[in-house]
Amino acid sequence: MDVRLPLTSAGVCLAVLLSACSPSEEKRQVSLEEKTAQFEKSLDAIEDPKLKNAVAELGGSLLLLERAQLKLDSKPLETEYGEDVLAVLKHYPTPQALVDTYINGLFVLLRDSSSDYLTDLQPVFPFNFSIPAAFLFPHGLEWQSVTLSNKRVIAFQPEWSETDPGIQLSPSSSNLTDPDDLTVAYPFIDGLDADIKSQPQPVSLQGTVEVIAPGRLYSFDLTKKDVGQTRTNDNLSVTLIKLGTNYAEVEFSNSAPQAAETGEAQLNPLIVQARDATGQFLSRSGSINETAAQIVFYQQQLAKMQQQKAWSEVLEKQLDDEQRNFEKQQSHRYAKVYFNGPIETLEVSLLDFSTATVTSKELNLPVRRFDRITTEKTIQPLNLPVVVYDDQAPSWLRGAALTEDQLKKGVNISQSVEDPSAARIEFNHLRSFNDELLGTSFNPGESPVTFFTEDSRGKRDEPIELPPEAYEVDPLRGSITYDLNLFPETPAYVVGSIPLFLATVDKKTLDAHQLPKGLELKGNTLVVDLKLFPEQDWRFFAKDDSGHYLKEILAVNHVASTEGPALFAVHYFYGQPTRLETYQRTDLATVPYGFEVRLDKADLTKLPQ
């Protein structure tokens, strides 16, 4: 949840946070709901459509800001770890080198669609970002056209048109989470069978990309003793206003003017990260980026708008002038950043845009096809001129040495009693590398389960005798489903055992020049003989001379026929491997997980009479 003004740009993004509220928070919630109802009522009284839209946008954003603050303040303090968002930058000597890798590592995959009339194009980026700011630097990517195999060029259009009879290039409707994915739509001809292979195929995708790289990045390491202090490095300064249990309030500034090359780009130079006492990075839960003075200013602008009868150019100019003058007076910027867990240390980083490099490039990218399974005998090259590291690999691979105690401690038990005839208990655990190597040969063993009533003190009492059909244990999915229709008494506890599975993993490190039979490195590709290294038992990770894991681009299994066994696998990497790590599952153990769960109370009125 990150909320940022100016509100007139509606720059608000909310994630739904489910949390319990204290009595004071419940009062704030009621007050907010009343305020929202009053605002909507006042909005209905405005007749001028332009004025109504302006008031709705500003007032709605202020209410959304207040709602976000309430959600963030009331979120339970539960520790959740994240990643070092600056790790990717630390692999490159300059910010510009990161930009060049981002642009030169981009390529386009052709994907089959579920429709006979559609072909999907998937741009593949060298970096995956899960942080709120996505790519670290301001950037823009615009697709312009696709060139087909018959040399015809189809222009990009923002929406697919039902009335356009020709071939169209538009954003993909099947992947709403990735706005860069595209679809080539072929015309539908009623009465004729579709044969997409007879249509001209996309061979290249055209577009433009622009990235603004800051001249430098500087990080300030702060703790509680820095509260109230201003730390400075040349033109950059940071003041830690407050450090709460799970949030930090900071002010920051750049005394040098913004580089002329950045133009009118909206720049967010601040990156705040926190660690807890273990030294691990905490994940962010959101931020509020407006001071109390800023909120008061926008409330005053809203009140002025609400006093008007109609929108006018004079009013618009007055509001714009007031906003510009107000922003000129703000020499410092502010952020209140929330984290999932108690903060021990803070890392506040600033991107310095007083000097900047703008990289603009016309893109003409070949459309490549790499199916997950192919009958092709030859290995298709995919050698991109960049090196990209996998910063998640070290923590992911710790799962290769997972112990029984660690596996058990990671179990999370959840319940669902909305349907009393199919109430559920689920035993989930955080997915790790160990899960990747479990294979399919499970021996779940016995899963004894007994339901109990409770006594007058709420403690576990007598076991309930049940027919076999009253409950069902699914040991492989880690779930218990029970039907309260078939219970002679209301259950309060369930006691039993559910199986967990733990692989024994053997790790080896190999030199790229001394690989065993069945493994071969060809440039940036690793070829694996699947008869000697079966896929369900083996995993491979590559490093270069830096000692960092190389990121895998994709993998392809080559088969003898569409129904035949896999012959060999090809793994493509961003970079040249010089060392290989192999992980082999040598054993699979069943770990009984004993439990006693107090059951959530179901609404028995929902049971059929």
Automatic annotation (TrEMBL):
Highest taxon, organism lineage: Bacteria
UniProt feature coiled coil, ranges: 288-332
Keyword Coiled coil: yes
Keywords: Coiled coil
PROSITE patterns: PROKAR_LIPOPROTEIN (PS51257)
Protein name, UniProt field: Lipoprotein
